[in-house]
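User: Sorry, what's this?
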Amino acid sequence: MRQPPSIPRLLASVAFAALVAAGLGGCQTMSDVTGSLGSRAEPPPATPQRAVEVYGERYRANPKDAAIAVAYGQALRTNGQREQAVAVLEQATLANAGNKTVLAAYGRALADNGNFKLAFDVLSRAHSPDNPDWKLLSVQGTALDQMGRHEEARRYYDSALKIVPGEPSVLSNLGLSYMLTRELPKAEEVLRQAYGSQRADARVRQNLALVVGLQGRFAEAEQIARADLPPDEAAANVAYLKQMIQGQSQSKGKARNAAPMAALNPPD
């Protein structure tokens, strides 16, 4: 049986992943990037490591090419090389001033790396009020949530939902925003809207499981988690969450009054 994850990993891997990764909902996949670089019949690299090698070689041959830089940055992010992705895309913005695709990729990489204030500012230049991109609005919302500006973040999610009503990735981020302020019934209500969508993915389901578990309904949380995790792993995660909550209730109140701040840290 797998070992239960640490508390930061349990919360961060679920909540932060949706606030940033799902918050990047609709960002380019490796196959999308490949299509922009050459023949659409060209298959994407088989692994993240191979993608870094392929796009890295192309980038070094032509570092000023915007499409190649974006592809390389995405490959680095997918491979967990966040700081290097930021560095590559920062140079790409200098070489391609005003290129909104590059700015969007750079902003996403900054958010992925925890540079939330700069990410928000860069993303603001990647689209405009008269032509907003709902995906970028959602990422900007996640950045604001990570800075503790929850009410402002929710306005960005609302703006995104006006463009794509019912979009589960945006609803998931909105639900987690309420979780961060411990408005758990409201968080569950929003996440259930996302959960009911045919487009809901594993992150949405795991976020709902987390919020349900935080309210003490552990059997229900485990049932939801089992849709995407092996039974032993789902049980271990929920058992560890239960242990954490019980530990908080036995404390002198410090943890009881705090939002689940582990969710504000990037996954280890």
Summary: Residues 161 and 220 are 28 Å apart (CA to CA). The mean pLDDT is 82.
